[in-house]
Amino acid sequence: MREVVVVGVGMHRFGKTGDSVVGTKSVTELCRHAVDMALADAGVKWKQIEAVSAASSRFSGGKGWGLNGNDVVENVGSTGIPIYNLSAGCAAGGNAFNVGYSMVAGGIYDMMLVVGGEVMPKGMIQTSGVEEATDPEFLRQRCVGIPGPAFWATLARRRMHDYGTTEEQFAKVTVKARKCSVGNPYARFQKEVSIAEVLASPYVSNPLRLFEICPVSNGAAAAIICTREKARQFTAKPITVATSTVATMTFEDALPRGLAGPVPAGASFHTEARGAVLKAFEKAGIGPKEVSFTELQDNTCYYELAFPEEWGLCEPGEAERLLEAGETAPTGRMPINPSGGFVSFGEATTAMGVFQIAETTWQLRGQAGGRQVPDAKVGLTQTLGLGGNATAAILKR
Amino acid sequence: MENHSPCVPGLFEDQGGVHLLGARCVTCGTPYFPRQAACRNPHCGESKMEDCSFSGRGTVWSYSVADFSPPAPFKCDPPFKPYVIAVVDLENGLRIVGQMMNEFEEMKVGALVELVIDTLYHEGDVARTTWKFKPAGGH
């Protein structure tokens, strides 16, 4: 295995179709912006890119076949390079990073582009377009009707039961996240909100409110990765990819994802995310206590409380206390989502794994401005996608 | 008298109580709903599936509310009215999701509930039905 580094990152600010940020830009235009920025950041020319690993979108571009990497390469200039289009639900960006990392580490290519972008349809994400009795998602939505937020809300309600979490504490996560987003030029929302404003926003799925759930956004991110040896031509201080991992859920998973399953023996939540993160700690030889900050997938503020506990960053039931003591802020002992997270960006689903790599790179370089984690040395990232997909990565300077 | 018909055929029967049509692997005991042809437990030595039905009572593991109408393929009679969704652990070892018949204010984690068949939406003069839960009586 060769050591892999990040030499350049780029991002298109996140926004909503029709606004002044993304307007009517296509997913390929958003990606082009991110790719140009990453190439300039790295000092790399397009013709030096040997292969592309791209997240496949279900919602836009890609010629309707998830060929988003092909769209990007045609747009930047067809050089005949191999293109890998990766599909893993909302974990696709993380998967694309993992495949790029694995190929560079494994000696297949010396320098690759990783890219993910999305233009999202309005409203709640429709998880299945299939209307067949053999499709589990169809049965779940037709026979019961469980939109994504209601799935998260059952988990949030269970946490309230298990640990006494209050609705005010959920609201405080959003307040913290939005405070981080102030001055982040890439965030869709860049203004603080008060607890009162969060608690005045309507329930999307009780107990979770509008400001506590990430909306869908349009956006794109890109990263240029290469071997450490290759990087010497471009920079003296590349960011090291300590590891990148992928995992899927296990049979023991306790979450109500389908219509029904066996009553589990214990509390085994998000087994794919836990699998990816624990494998990342093991492969990198870096423990949770050595992590300077974490960029995790907060589709809802519930995850900022649950995930750190599920991965051993803190003890079960401890997250609320850490939040209220300011320890999850960029200046705290366990900073979570200094970028502002999905709650501030909105989710451009398949871009998110690459978005996390870009933010983590800026943090480790000390370029994160007002949201900078002081003396950040190690960053952990994590995505989660439909189908029981998850990824993690650990970057260090 | 209104005609009743399941919203998706083959998932349940409503004769002499509610029966969800499921299966169980005889080797490892894993319950399945809907029916599956083969066991999915990677730790199971040999898949030996037997049809069975799930009925009766369970306890609420957690719950939430669909405060806004879910996207298609969800269907309901207009206008949309928020409904409670519960995750219920049935006495016979199945964790299952379903709509609740009662209001949010009456919900509690750990509450005892029972399976019922109820109308989900209408298609012409046919009431399309599904399984739901209501508070278990007498407790």
Provide a descriptive summary of the structure in words.
The complex is a heterodimer of chains A (about 400) and B (about 140). Chain A is of the alpha/beta class and about 400 residues long. Chain A has one domain: Peroxisomal Thiolase, Chain A, domain 1 (3-Layer(aba) Sandwich). Chain A is about 35% helix and about 20% strand. Chain A is built from 13 helices and 12 strands. Chain A has helices at about 25-40, 70-75, 90-105, 135-145, 150-165, 165-180, 195-200, 230, 270-285, 300-310, 320-325, 340-345, 350-365; strands at about 5-15, 50-55, 85, 110-120, 205, 210, 220-225, 240-250, 260, 295, 380-385, 390-395. Chain A has a 9-stranded mixed beta sheet with strand order 3-2-4-7-1-8-12-11-10, with helices on both faces. A two-stranded antiparallel sheet of chain A has the order 5-6. In chain A, α2 links the parallel β2 and β3 (about 85). In chain A, α1 crosses α2 (about 70-75) and α3 packs across α13 (about 350-365). The model of chain A has no long low-confidence stretch (mean pLDDT about 95). Chain B is mostly beta strands and about 140 residues long. Chain B has a domain at about 55-140: OB fold (Dihydrolipoamide Acetyltransferase, E2P) (Beta Barrel), CATH 2.40.50. In chain B, about 0% of the residues lie in helices and about 50% in strands. Chain B is built from no helices and 10 strands. Chain B has strands at about 5, 10-15, 20-25, 30, 50-55, 55-65, 85-90, 95-100, 110-125, 125-135. In chain B, β3 and β4 form a beta hairpin. The radius of gyration of chain B is 16 Å and the shape is globular. The model of chain B has no long low-confidence stretch (mean pLDDT about 95). The interface between A and B is large, with 42 and 48 residues.
